[in-house]
Specification:
By secondary structure, this protein is an all-alpha fold. 41% of the residues lie in helices and 0% in strands. α4 (43-52) packs across α5 (69-76). The relative contact order is 0.15.
Length: 99
């Protein structure tokens, strides 16, 4: 799923290499490359990139389109807000009370 973002434009306007942005954001160069190509990334990664580019979280729409601030802040606090599939283990009969 391609996402609209201005990461490359902002990075180049600041005369910053992909490696420098990756280092400041504590992510890999490959991650920066994928994001600049429009691939999706975790909210925590978006938060790191926004801050590494010198923006405040409230200015997120200048870097990434339509990323709710609550999601970015939640990611900063380690809360998961993604709707990814989670495997749920079914309990076996052991340890369950019989009605």
């Amino acid at each position: 799923m391609a996402n609209v973002n201005n990461v490359r434009k902002i990075r180049e306007s600041k005369m910053m290499s992909k490696a420098e942005l990756a280092r400041k954001a504590s992510v890999t160069v490959q991650t920066i490359d994928r994001i600049e190509k429009g691939n999706d990334c975790r909210l925590d990664t978006k938060r790191k990139i926004i801050l590494a580019l010198g923006y405040k979280l409230g200015e997120r729409s200048k870097v990434f389109a339509e990323t709710p601030l609550a999601d970015i802040r939640g990611a900063a606090q380690g809360k998961s807000t993604s709707k990814s599939k989670v495997k749920v283990r079914r309990q076996t009969g052991k340890g369950r009370k019989q009605a």
